Amino acid sequence: MKPEFSTYTEAQLRDVLRHIDKRKFPERVEEIEHLLADPVFLHNTRRDKAIRDAEELEQNDHNQKASGIAWIIGYGVLLVIFGVSTNRYAISIKNDVNDPFFRYGFGLICIFGGSYWMYKYYKNRNKVTRK
């Protein structure tokens, strides 16, 4: 069964050309060389590769942002849990730890702020991907 070389990228075609048995498949070698000599084919494969690379970079950027926001929310949850445990089990701690804003405020700010950022991030991401 003969492969469809027109769907290969330039790098794949060059790799096939290096490893193909030229005496056994001379017509395939000729087809590959013809495709590699065609400037329109090369332009299209390079453009497609550039588009795929840009999409991959954008996806990695989205994943990094979502991960960072999730860490902020998780940190806020830990602060709130720590505030509850400080209130419940520590009787003789200084007054600044007994302050409710110290115990819960910053944790809640992280949770609600992170949730808002996550909402805006996904809302904006859906607008970008629909275009």
List keywords for this structure.
131 residues; mainly alpha; rod-shaped
Task: Describe what you observe in this structure.
With 131 residues, the protein is an all-alpha fold. It is 82% helix and 0% strand. The chain is built from five helices and no strands. The chain has helices at 10-19, 26-37, 39-89, 95-98, 100-130. Helix 1 runs antiparallel to helix 2 (26-37) and helix 3 (39-89) runs antiparallel to helix 5. The chain is rod-shaped. The protein starts with 9 loop residues before the first helix and ends with a helix. The mean pLDDT is 80.
Taking pLDDT < 50 over at least 5 consecutive residues as the criterion, the unreliable ranges are: none
Structural class: mainly alpha
Rg value: 29 Å
How many strands? Answer: 0
Overall pLDDT metric: 80
Per the principal axes of the C-alpha atoms, what is the gross shape?
rod-shaped
Largest sheet: none
CA-CA gap between termini: 40 Å
Order of helices and strands: HHHHH
Work out the helix count. 5
Q: Tell me the strand percentage band.
A: under 5%
Which range best describes the helical content: under 10%, 10-25%, 25-40%, 40-55%, 55-70% or over 70%?
over 70%
Q: How is the secondary structure organized here?
A:
Layout lengths: L9 H10 L6 H12 L1 H51 L5 H4 L1 H31 L1
What is the structure about, briefly put?
This protein is mainly α and 131 residues long. Helices cover 82% and strands 0% of the residues.
